[in-house]
Design a protein that fits this description.
CarbesteraseB; Rossmann fold; Carboxylesterase_B_CS; 13 strands; signal; alpha/beta; 3-stranded mixed sheet; glycoprotein; about 350 residues
């Protein structure tokens, strides 16, 4: 018992000060900018890469991996408009074209979230649909960037190379950021690394259980969905699969949590449309913070708003359970690796400890 209490207090302390080991970061190279011809200067030295997308031009920068390999970074590339205001709980809208050169040298804002790991701190923005790209090769002057599918043809490569997309999702679907996973080690290999943000928690999975707000505005179970499963060649899943009890929230329970939250904001209404319109007028920071009030003490897993099975509608992403999808054979047959991470059971242990306190 003393060990359990000690670990709980240690984790509480780590919410105030960083306790994780500080992983080394890749070196940022200081590249001269005085003379530039396309991607190289007259001395054939590579300078900051400038790449033309169909909707605008971005300028990245050079970095070094932990093994000393040069690579190119493009950070904070928007793939969608802000999800706030009238776009809250709507499918993402592709980013409008911009003029001039957009600096892609730092990650965009995290999606608005309440972090349990950070002692329930609320941070981020509804303008958060950004991605980061890291490549070991100098890109050609043009490449095709497909926003509707996140990625179709990103670079024209001169050597065989693999594309790795990282979707960061905590098991609670409430917190996280694509920028948490950096290129320091992965770019030692011939890999194009892509990390991205998506909506989380109440802003990503709020649902009334009907066509007015079916849910699933954040990350999805791509291998099961008919809409995107053909865009992936293989999948690595760490810390769980779609079959976990917290992998999906039942439509009934998700609607229950959504109605409880709406009631707290005075938006409870039998008419789903009116409920949705009322909730859209609420401050997004208050919505994120109010999720805490829905927890019954400290459940395990701490799941409120997460992916769900949608009612049939034209834009439906997930209409069958993982069990049914596998049973009927509609799942994409792709190579699939599953694994676990360090300290997987800490949250379960904390839950048991807290629930035993009288």
């Amino acid at each position: 018992m003393l060990v359990t209490v000690g670990m709980f207090l240690f984790n509480l302390l780590c919410g105030l000060v960083p306790c994780d080991p500080q992983l080394p970061k890749p070196e940022i190279l200081d590249i001269p900018r005085d003379v530039r011809i396309r991607a190289r200067n007259i001395d054939n030295r590579i300078v900051e890469p400038i790449v033309k997308l169909p909707i605008g031009i971005v300028e990245g920068y050079r970095m070094k991996s932990m093994n000393g390999r040069d690579f190119f970074a493009f950070e904070g590339i928007p793939y969608g408009e802000s999800t706030g205001g009238s776009r809250r709980w709507k499918p993402p809208v592709p980013k409008r074209p911009w003029r001039g050169v957009r600096q892609a040298k730092k990650p965009g804002s995290d999606c608005l979230q309440m972090s349990v790991a950070k002692l329930f701190r609320v941070y981020g923005s509804e303008d958060c649909l950004y991605l980061n790209v890291y490549t070991p090769q100098q890109p050609y002057n043009y490449f095709t960037f497909a926003y509707s599918t996140i990625l179709k043809h990103f670079f024209s490569f001169r050597i065989p190379i693999r594309v790795l997309m990282v979707y960061r999702l905590s098991f609670s679907s409430m917190e996280g950021s694509g920028s948490e996973y950096g290129p320091a080690y992965l770019l030692n290999e011939d890999i194009v690394l892509i990390t991205l943000n998506y909506r989380l928690g109440v802003l990503g999975f709020f649902s009334t259980g009907d066509h007015h707000m079916p849910g699933n505005y954040g990350a999805h179970l791509h291998l099961i969905s008919n809409k995107t499963r053909n865009y992936f060649s293989s999948v690595v899943s760490s810390s769980g699969t779609a079959f976990q009890t917290w992998g999906l929230q039942s439509p009934e329970k998700l609607k229950y949590f959504s109605n409880r939250l709406a009631q707290r904001f005075g938006c409870q209404n039998e008419d789903s449309y009116e409920l949705v319109q009322c909730m859209k007028r609420m401050d997004s920071n208050l919505l994120a913070a109010a999720q805490l009030s829905l927890f019954d003490w400290f459940p395990f897993p701490p799941v409120l708003f997460s992916p769900t099975i949608e009612p049939p509608h034209p834009d439906a992403f997930l209409t069958v359970s993982p069990e049914e999808a596998y049973r009927t054979g509609v799942v994409a047959k792709k190579p699939f690796i599953m694994g676990v991470t360090k300290d997987e059971g800490k949250t379960a242990m904390m839950s048991k400890l807290l629930s035993s306190i009288t």
